[in-house]
Amino acid sequence: MLKKYFPSILACLALAVLFTIVQVGISGGLLSGYWITNIYLMGINIILASSLNLINGFTGEFSLGHAGFMAVGAFTGAIVTANLGLPFPLAIIAGMLAAAIAGVIVGLPTLRLRGDYLAIATLGFGEIVRVVLMNIDYVGGASGMMGIPEVVNWPIIFISVVLSLLLIRNFIGSSHGRACLAVRENDLAAQMMGVNITYYKVLAFVIGAALAGLAGVLYAHYYSIIQPKEFSFMLTFDVLVMVMVGGLGSLTGSVVGAVLLTTASAFLQAIPELRMVLYALLLIVSAVFRPQGLLGEKEITLRTFERWGGVLYAALNRKQTE
Amino acid sequence: MQLLTVNKLSKSFGGLVAINNFNLRVESGDLVGLIGPNGAGKTTVFNLLTGLYQPTTGSITFDGRDLKGKHPHQITRMGMARTFQNIRLFGNLSVLDNVKIAYQAVVNYGLIPAFLRVPPFNRREEEIEKAALELLEIFGLKEHAYDRARNLPYGEQRCLEITRALATGPKLLLLDEPAAGMNPQETHELLSLIKWIREQFKLTIILIEHDMSLVMGLCERVLVLDYGSLIAEGTPQEIQQNPKVIEAYLGDEEVVAWEE
Ligand SMILES: Nc1ncnc2c1ncn2[C@@H]1O[C@H](COP(=O)(O)OP(=O)(O)OP(=O)(O)O)[C@@H](O)[C@H]1O
Ligand SMILES: [Mg+2]
Question: What ipTM does the predicted assembly reach?
C-alpha cells in the first residue's frame, strides 16, 4: 500500500521542499526584490509556455495568439477587482472564463486554416485585442489600468503553477488528450477513429486560452499596473521560444524552457537589446540543431519518482530489517 | 439485412466527374470486391462512404440511416471503419496508443474525470488498455505495444491499421488496397487474416484491391469501376470473362505501354 503511493508522496515532498526554500528566501530577506519578481515571472511564464504547448505542441495547431488571451484575462481580472471591487478569486474565475470564450471565438473560425495561415490569423487576433483595449476608456485606453490590488504572493503563484501543470498533464494523459495527439499526428485518420476533430481543436484552444488568462490575472495582480502595449506580439514570441527550446510536446520541456529563459533575461535586464538577440539566436539554434527541443517529447513523471522512490524505498527497508 | 445502400451516387471535382451514377447494395455478412484501373474512382467511393467527401448527387444509407450531412466521426461511431491506401498511422505515438484512440469510439468518459482523475477515469482507462492489449495480442502486435508506430516494419503497419479499425467496433470494414507493397507470402497471410477477422468479428467487408489473387480468393461478388462508372458486377469468374472488363484493363495497359 505504502509502496503504491510512495512516488506520489515523494513528488509532493519535492514540491514542498521547493516551496519552502523560496518562501524562506522571501520571508527571510535572502532574495532581493529583483529576484523575487523574476521568480514570480518564472511561474507566470511556466503557465504561459505549458498552455501554449497544449495548443501548438500536443494538438499541432500553430497559434500565435497567446498574448491576446493573456491580455483578455489580465484586463477582465483587473476590471473585477479594481473597477468592481470584487474579491480576487472572482477575478481568476472571470479572467479564465473570458479568455476561454476568446479561445472559442478564435478557435472556431480558424479551424479551416492550417499552418502559416492559422499562425497569421491568431497573430491578427492578438493585435486586435491590443488595439481594441487601447481604445476603450473604461480600461484606461493606451495608459491602461492602475491601482489593481497587489494580492499575488508566492503561495498563490506556486499553487497556480502546480495546478495548471497538473491539469494539463491529466488532460494529456486521458482519452481526450490522446484525441488531441491523434489530431496532430493525422487528422484524417483521427476522424476515421471516431475523433471529433473540430471539438478537440477548439477544446485545446479553450483550455490553452483559459490558462493564459490565468497567467494574465496573476500578472495584473502582481504588478498592479497593466498597459495594452505590454501584451504585444513580442510576449507571444518570448513564450514561443520557451516552448520551442524546451520541446514541442513536452510539458517538462516547457517548464525547463520557461525557467531557463526567464533566468537568462533576468541577467540581461540591463541590456534589453541583447535579450532579443539571445532569444532569436536560441530559436534559430534550437531549430537547426535540436528541432525537437531540449527534452524532445520526454517527461518527468510519477514513474521517474517511482524509479528514485524504488531505490530509496529499498534502502529504507534494508535499514529497518538490519 | 441490407447494411449499405448507395443510390445514384455522383461526385465531381470541378469539371472532373470522379464517380458517375454509382449504385451498390451490400447485405450484412457480404464480402464485396471493388476493382478498376488506376484513377477509376475506387478510393473516392470510400471517401464518400466515410463522409470525408460530400456527394454531388445521390444518397447513401447505412444501417438504416441516411448519411447525408453526417460527419466522418459520426459515421465511424455508427459502425463503419476503414484503412487507407497510403498508410495513415499516428506515427509518433505508441502502437498501443494507436489502438486506444480508436477504442474510445466505444468506451469514453467526460472531461471532469479526465482533468481530476476521479471515477470513472481509472476504471475506464483500465478497460480501454485491457481491450487494446487484447486486440494487439490477437494480431501478434503485443510485443510492439510500446514501440512507436512509425518504427514498425511495413507489413505490421498495415496490420496495425486493420487492428485499429477493428477497435472502433465496426459492422462494415472498408479495406483500401491492404496488400499494396506486400510480397506473395505476406499477401497470402493477409488473405487468411481477412477471412479470419470476418468470421470472428462478424464483419461485412468491401475490399479495394489490385492483387487479383486476393480478390478472386476472397470475394463472392466483384464490382468493376472505370472512369467513375460501374461497368460490371458479378462473381469473380463472370468478371474475369467479361469483355468490358478485359477492355478496361487492356485499355489501361495500352495507355501505360504508350506512356513508356
Ligand atoms: N480531392 C480531389 N480533388 C480533385 N480530384 C480528385 C480528388 N480525389 C480524387 N480525385 C480524382 O478522382 C479520380 C479518382 O481517384 P481515386 O483516388 O478515387 O482513384 P482510385 O480508383 O482509387 O485509383 P488508384 O487505383 O490509383 O488508387 C482521379 O482522377 C483523381 O485525380
Ligand atoms: Mg485508390
Answer: 0.92
Q: Which domain holds residue A268?
A: 33-321
pTM given for the model: 0.92
Peptide bond into B72 cis (omega under 30): no
DSSP codes of every residue in A92-158: HHHHHHHHHHHHHHHHTGGGG--HHHHHHHHHHHHHHHHHHHHT-GGGTGGG-B--------HHHHH
From-to residues of CATH 3.40.50.300 in chain B: 1-79+170-260
Which residues, 6 or more positions from B154, have their beta carbon under 8 angstroms from its beta carbon? B181, B182
Q: What CATH number has the domain bearing residue A135?
A: 1.10.3470
What is the rounded distance in angstroms from the CA atom of residue B115 to the CA atom of residue B205? 39
Please tell me the predicted confidence (pLDDT) of residue A322.
Answer: 54
Of B73, B97, B111, the CB nearest to A194: B73
Q: Is residue A163 domain-resident?
A: yes
Pocket test for ligand 1, best of B42, B82, B86, B211 (most atoms within 8 A of CB): B42
> What nine digits make up the cell of A83?
473597477
Starting at the earlier edge strand, list the strands of the sheet with B65-66.
B16-27, B2-13, B57-62, B65-66
Cβ of A186 under 8 Å from any chain B Cβ? yes
Which residue reads 491506401 in cell numbers?
B85
Record: contact B90-A176, CB cut-off 8 A? no
Tell me how close the Cα of B75 comes to any Cα of chain A, in angstroms: 8
For residue B126, CA distances in Å to A61, A93, B107, B133 come to 30, 33, 11, 10
Closest-CA residue in chain B for A196? B73
Pocket test for ligand 1, best of B35, B38, B44 (most atoms within 8 A of CB): B44
pLDDT for the residue B252: 54
Q: Give chain A's residues under pLDDT 70.
A: 1-2, 309-310, 313, 319-322
Give me ligand 1 centre to Cα B228, in Å. Answer: 9
Sequence length of chain A is 322
Assess B50–A contact: CB distance below 8 Å, yes or no.
Answer: yes
The alpha carbon of B50 and the centre of ligand 2 are apart by a number of angstroms equal to: 14
Answer yes or no: is A7 within a domain.
Answer: no
| pLDDT tens digits, one per residue of B56-87 | 999 999 999 999 999 999 999 999 999 999 99
Query: Which protein residues are within 6 Å of ligand 1, measured from CB?
Result: B 13, 16, 18, 36, 38-44, 85
pLDDT at B257: 38
The bridge status of strand B80-82 relative to strand B172-176 is parallel
Give the CATH class of B1-79+170-260. alpha beta
pLDDT of residue A145: 96
Is the residue at A2 inside a domain? no
pLDDT digits (tens, 9 = 90+) for B2-23: 999 999 999 999 999 999 999 9
**A175 and B100 in contact by Cβ < 8 A?**
yes
Q: A42 in helix, strand or coil?
A: helix
Q: How many domains does chain A have?
A: 1
Question: pLDDT by residue (tens digit) across B87-143?
Answer: 999 999 999 999 999 998 888 999 999 999 999 999 999 999 999 999 999 999 999
Q: Residue B213's pLDDT is what?
A: 82
